[in-house]
Design a protein that fits this description.
This protein is an alpha/beta fold. It is 31% helix and 16% strand. It has a 9-stranded mixed β-sheet with strand order 2-1-3-4-9-8-7-5-6. Helix 5 links the parallel strand 3 and strand 4. Helix 2 (33-42) packs across helix 3 (71-85). The N and C termini lie far apart (65 Å).
Length: 314
């Protein structure tokens, strides 16, 4: 009897832990008025390209895994960015039911805002997203948008890479180079590398599609000791990055299933959402996904380029 009682209690604890881990939008803290003011003060005035028609973006922010605290300010910023510039209108959603062909027909792009471990419920939802891209529409992703669809290969390949840890944590300030300084989606940075405080991902070698399929816009500048620092504690990992020629892309664009994809790893820390350069980069990437801003998506391996490194110090 004691064993049965213990088993039932254990089962109850397990069920409770599962329930506590389930997605609940109320876990997101409201954005403070102070932070809203910072965002509004940092928004660009106008888009780089005039919209060809009224555009709509579906901002999806559900999490089945880690819930980023910056989701709420990301949602607020993306909506206000569209309103201020007139580039688009944005709707928020966190229920998988929006992934049907009828609902998605209203939208020109889908933005995955820090989503984690997404698992679509059925083939209809999976087909709706792929069909959306096949219609020549677009998808964009912020930060954890590469931490999804681990059991669905097309979804895993869509963004171009999948999360494999973040040696560059959110408390550090890291150096970034412009891999493609003259690319239109890098115009926000005025041809200059930079330093930022944020959490930066590396990607699983077996799912990262690499320079043969994506156009890399920004990557970590590993020539700086501060940015190489997290790797120096692991001799094997450091050797891979220095002698093996590995690189850490941060922002890129690509074509996938007939549609356009833009992704940026930036967006863990709230402060990124009141950084004007980052907001311009997001806007330009979204305009590419929407089909209003022409941008060259020729894979990096097929072009000649001269990257611009970050300044010597932050």
């Amino acid at each position: 009897m004691k064993r049965i009682t213990f088993a039932l209690l254990a089962l109850g604890v397990f069920a409770t832990s599962v329930a506590e881990a389930a997605w609940d939008r109320n876990r997101l803290k409201p954005v403070s008025e102070e932070k809203k003011a910072k965002v509004l003060d940092s928004l660009p005035d106008r888009p780089l390209a005039k919209p060809k028609k009224q555009r709509r973006v579906l901002v999806f922010y559900r999490c089945e895994g880690f819930v980023h605290g910056s989701i709420a300010i990301g949602n607020y910023t993306i909506q206000e960015l569209g309103k201020k510039t007139g580039a688009y209108l944005a709707d928020l959603a966190d229920e998988y039911s929006v992934f049907n062909k009828e609902t998605l027909a209203k939208y020109d792009a889908i933005l995955f805002n820090n989503t984690t471990h997404l698992v679509f419920q059925n083939d209809d939802q999976r087909d709706a997203l792929i069909d959306f891209l096949k219609q020549g529409k677009g998808v964009a992703g912020i930060h954890a948008a590469t931490d999804n669809f681990y059991k669905w290969k097309p979804g895993a390949r869509m963004m171009g890479g999948q999360f494999d840890g973040h040696p560059w944590n959110s408390g550090g300030t890291w150096s970034f180079k412009l891999d493609d300084p003259k690319h239109v989606l890098n115009r926000a940075f005025n041809g200059k590398g930079f330093w930022l405080k944020d959490e930066i991902y590396q990607y699983k070698p077996d799912t990262f599609v690499g320079a043969n399929e994506i156009r890399i816009l920004i990557s970590l500048d590993l020539s700086k000791d501060q940015t190489m620092g997290p790797l120096k504690r692991n001799d094997g990992l450091r050797k891979q990055y220095t002698e093996g020629g590995r690189y850490v892309p941060v922002s890129w664009l690509r074509k996938f299933e007939g549609g356009r994809v833009f992704y940026s790893s930036l967006g863990h820390n709230d402060s990124l959402f009141w950084n004007t350069g980052v907001l311009k980069h997001y806007l330009d990437g979204l305009q590419y996904a929407l089909g209003d801003l022409e941008a060259d998506a020729t894979p990096t391996s097929k072009i000649n380029r001269t990257p611009v490194l970050a300044p010597a110090k932050p």
